[in-house]
Specification:
Layout: H1 2-17, E1 40-43, E2 46-49, E3 52-55, E4 60-64, E5 74-76, E6 84-92, E7 98-103, E8 113-116, E9 119-122, E10 134-139, E11 143-158, E12 161-169, E13 181-184, E14 187-198, E15 202-209, H2 211-217
Antiparallel strand pairs: 1-2, 3-4, 4-7, 5-6, 6-7, 8-9, 10-11, 10-13, 11-12, 12-15, 13-14, 14-15
Protein name: Trypsin-like serine protease
Keywords: Disulfide bond, Hydrolase, Protease, Serine protease, Signal
Organism: Streptomyces flavofungini
């Protein structure tokens, strides 16, 4: 049996050398067709995750962290900046911390879903957060982690100013996770603003609640699949 295997390997090598054995054809990666919460977008100045997709009934938007770019920032689906996705319309920071990216690429879809590792999670609602409830978050640095809401109406001070009305949790996060979605099952709860600690020893992470953003801009989650 071993002799036959060696002979077969030598024959394949000889045929390949003579150009008589076709090389395997590389298969191109499938083109991206959707942008979801948890996906990373890229600009000329860096990258940021989308927290949630929302709509006003006419247009679709992605909600990002308030530190992600300025009004007019162009976002792309790839780090080479070849697939445009949208442009930042609104930035609110400090006091609150979020940005709205107006999606412009009609060749992509923007479902009310988030990507958490290999999972695709449908987002149907955006309730008010409650102390003691579970909250999970996903981010490009450390992936999916869960914890508990410890308090509401917390505040965090940055060099640019203070952000108020935040959700305080014992979920861990690390640099690069900021701006990712916070959720519980099919409920969108908030956007990672920042915190302390790490995912090896634990820590405290703060979230910008989602309901006030939706109310201020006439937006909603849980719309029909596109």
């Amino acid at each position: 049996m071993r002799l036959r295997l060696i002979i077969a390997q030598l024959l394949c090598a000889a045929l390949a050398a003579l150009g008589l054995l076709a090389a395997p054809t590389a298969t191109a990666a499938p083109a991206q067709t959707a942008v979801r919460g948890g996906d990373v977008l890229y600009s000329a100045s860096g990258r940021c995750p989308v927290a949630f997709n929302v709509t006003n009934g006419t247009r679709f938007y992605g909600i990002m962290g308030g530190h992600c770019g300025t009004v007019g920032t162009q976002w792309y689906a790839d780090p080479r900046l070849t697939v445009p996705v949208g442009v930042t319309d609104t930035v609110v920071f400090p006091r609150s911390s979020y940005a709205l990216v107006r999606y412009t690429n009609t060749g992509l879809t923007y479902p009310s879903e988030i990507r958490a590792g290999s999972q695709i999670i449908r987002i149907n609602r955006a309730p008010q957060p409650v102390v003691g409830q579970q909250i999970c978050r996903t981010g490009p640095t450390t992936g999916l982690h869960c914890g508990t809401i410890q308090s509401l109406n917390a505040s965090v001070t940055f060099p640019e100013g203070t952000v108020y009305g935040l959700i305080r949790t014992n979920v861990c996060a690390e640099p690069g996770d900021t701006g990712g979605p916070g959720f519980a099952g099919d409920a969108a709860l908030g956007i990672v603003v920042g915190g302390s600690g790490n995912c090896a020893s634990g820590g405290t992470t703060y979230f910008q609640p989602l309901p006030p953003i939706l109310s201020a801009h006439g937006l909603r989650v849980g719309y029909a699949r596109t």
